[in-house]
Write a structure and sequence with these properties.
With about 220 residues, this protein is an alpha/beta fold. It contains seven helices and eight strands. The radius of gyration is 17 Å and the shape is globular. Bound molecules: zinc ion. The site of zinc ion (ZN) has 5 residues, from loops.
Length: about 220
């Protein structure tokens, strides 16, 4: 490739992390929630029923839209199974760290014992010295932009931006990171939407618009 006289800055890389898909024997293993932590959590409880497939479908649509806008994209998994590194949330963060991502976007869907809960929320790292102090500000900015854009693109209820101190995949990230809970699979109406290609595309458009608002382009 030959660059023009002015050159061209490398396009920002967005790291997409569709949640779950860990083999159960690996998922039940534990890992520290942050560097040096004595608090351990399981790597992957499997998520809500059907969540791994919905998250992957939305991530693949988001990848296509981001590539069309000129971003580079890396995905922690492109098929049903997550296999990178030791298979946990530390590995998901390390994957995005090693790609020097401008942003890590974790894609999930929610579940609740109440079938009436519905809507979209975006989780961001809480501030923790030595873990997230370097990514707290940009992660919050990205989270606000993505939450606004996904609510706007889908018309879903706005459950807001939520700071979380207990998420391993945030506490090991050295790049800005957010986690979009794209809706509740335990809500019959929202589950129907989340399984439809048309609605997945609206979610993907929202995530892409939010990324663009944060990262430019
Ligand atoms: Zn999940």
């Amino acid at each position: 490739m030959i660059l023009g006289a002015a050159g061209a800055a490398a396009a920002a890389l967005i790291c997409l992390d569709p949640g779950h898909g860990t083999p159960p024997a690996v998922g039940r293993q534990t890992e520290p929630i942050g560097p040096g932590s004595h608090v351990f959590k399981i790597k992957d409880g499997g998520g809500a029923s059907g969540e791994a497939a919905v998250a992957l479908a939305i991530a693949r649509r988001t990848r296509a839209l981001l590539l069309a806008r000129g971003y580079r994209v890396a995905m922690t998994r492109t098929g049903p199974t997550f296999r990178y590194g030791n298979g946990g949330n530390i590995a998901r963060a390390q994957f995005c760290n090693q790609h020097h991502a401008a942003l890590m976007v974790r894609i999930h869907a929610d579940g609740s014992s109440s079938s009436s809960l519905h809507g979209v929320s975006t989780l961001v790292p809480a501030w923790h010295r030595g873990w997230t102090d370097d990514i707290y500000g940009p992660s919050l900015r990205a989270g606000r932009a993505i939450q606004r854009a996904v609510v706007s693109a889908t018309g879903a209820a706005d459950r807001g931006v939520v700071r979380r101190s207990d998420l391993t995949g945030f506490n090991w990230a050295n790049v800005p990171a957010v986690l979009v809970e794209t809706g509740f699979l335990t809500s019959p109406a929202e589950s129907r939407l989340l399984h439809s290609g048309a609605y997945q595309q609206r979610v993907a458009r929202g995530i892409t618009a939010g990324v663009a608002a944060f990262a430019g382009r």
